[in-house]
DNA sequence: AGTCACGGTGTTTTT
DNA sequence: CACCGTGACT
């Protein structure tokens, strides 16, 4: 009995077809991850392919990690030398080695959306562009779209022809790229674009990676854009062993440049491609799957297919309408509470899916009130918090002093008395001399009319220089700690002593833990932990990557974030025309956009394994005004016989004071929620109450093997444990990361 | 230099 | 509603 016997015939075919281009059309829940992992195992076990020669692209880091684990279970060796990563991480890894060929330093900075916006602001100011007419947001959006399509500023200008507006955008694009280059920075889209550029410019580099990646697999292929496709096809050109897996019905990222033509036209680009369809669903009950099939059947732009399942019929799809959003949320919280109390399931079995992030708030409120642990995925990123960004900008400055944006942010944080006027003068000087802001600061005595600020600037420069010189010998954690100590950042917050400042300190502690976790992860993979490595990881994590399947909490997230996941019990909330499908699509969208919304609905429905509940409200507050929405058209597309309507409208007749929160109640809730912004959002116990081992015990570490506990020091957030290992000597580690087992 | 209050504006979705 | 940027004031 081999591991491949558990696969169905088309799955087995997909696994065994290792040579040449392969397109796997994998319906929702048809076991595509199983196919991919078994295929990798097959390549290694049966075909003797060196894992070093395999590249697998996944959509999130979390998926990458899971895939690695599952391959490990199948083959038990060698999975660490497979490249499993997202497009972005793979490109960064390549660029870190070779981007000097394009005239950047290999320690380039990665700009997030905030950084892009401030850079664009600078660019507009310099170009005298009225940001009332040309909004930074929209300029960036247009540039991003151009990059998705691999269009350069020149291309854009040519395309513009007589179009004045587009010409203007093209010139902004050009300046924006120049500014990025000056700061030795890349934005998200550049990561892909520059890698393609590198491949096209340097034949030797491309050849190296073509030789290296003899077997390439791409997951969620329907959501790749033109640039990503180019990246992949360049790599696969030589050996043509390219296997892509996707489902055109789950393409939901058109707004971000995903090119559905990549999947629909695959056979055209690779004429000898083998096409394999996986249509048996193993995930959902028959009722849920039928509902999904019926909804998606309303789309015309698709490869026709019908998923089927041998699973049981299951309960009907529940639909409930409420008077308002409060009651909707209360019902959901109630149902989940009931489930847990009756021992019919855990919190982690449940997911709340909504169209927009703004909808999460009210569920958080009700979950807090009902004492239900939850984790919010998405929304405001941890790394976007002020205190975190400040500290990261110190690290960025130390790592890449050409990053003017980072220098600008921290030069007066904490207050050093270097104000806007002084900074403006230095910036002007830098611009005139064609040097970076930081270089100008280093020679500040040559900047005219600086006056008294000179000594303050000198202090700052000395401080950064000191850190730069130490950076090579210190760990990331030590550098961060040094920044915190020398700037007095935390000390200042401690002195403030408010609810908010305490929460900020907690966040900083968490950042410290993240540096430690990073160092340990690198150690485990036998790689060295570097500052730029850490900054890169920080830039590329998605919130979904931090979901811990061992924690028992309800997940709250957008339908987009839910892609690729599955849950026994799913609540799709806010099922109203104007919310989902969105107001934008209904009023301004074309058929294509409506079909994309419908695919999003299909994705949502097919996340559910056993139980699906759709809810909506008759009345809801949006941006300060009350809206009255009809039931979503998607709900009406599900045949009646598959739906359990309950009592059509939930006539709970709430007491007035329940419906409208009293001011006192309201402000209390607000306090809780604002506090939540600063406390870790999940109900995660970072620090165990006690450890199940003590000094003198023999323990096992997943990587280091067996050792004896020498010392346990209780820190604020965690225990620091010192262990003397038989093989690798004495190591210090944090208990919650090390997962030591007493033996 | 830094803080506060006001008014205008706007988000669908994200690596 | 909530955020951001601007402008006046300390």
CA radius of gyration is 27 Å
Derived from helix and strand composition plus strand pairing, the structural class reads: alpha/beta
Return residue spans where pLDDT drops below 50 for at least 5 consecutive residues. Answer: 653-667, 674-687
Shape type: globular
Count of DSSP H/I helices:
31
Biggest sheet features: 8 strands, mixed
| Share in β-strands | 15-25%
Mean pLDDT: 86
What level of helicity do the residues show?
40-55%
User: How many β-strands, per DSSP?
Assistant: 23
Distance between the termini: 34 Å
Protein name: ATP-dependent DNA helicase
GO molecular function: DNA helicase activity; hydrolase activity
Family: Belongs to the helicase family. UvrD subfamily.
Domain UvrD-like helicase ATP-binding: 5-285
Write up what this structure looks like.
The chain is of the alpha/beta class. 47% of the residues lie in helices and 15% in strands. Strands 11, 12, 13, 14, 15, 16, 17 and 18 form an eight-stranded mixed beta sheet that branches. A six-stranded parallel beta sheet has the order 3-2-6-7-1-8, sandwiched between helices. The protein is globular. The protein binds a DNA duplex (15 and 10 nucleotides) through residues 59-60, 86-89, 113, 137, 188-189, 191-192, 252-253, 255-256, 355-358, 378, 412, 415, 417, 419-420, 540, 542, 558-561, 579-580, 582-585, 596-597, 600, 621-625.
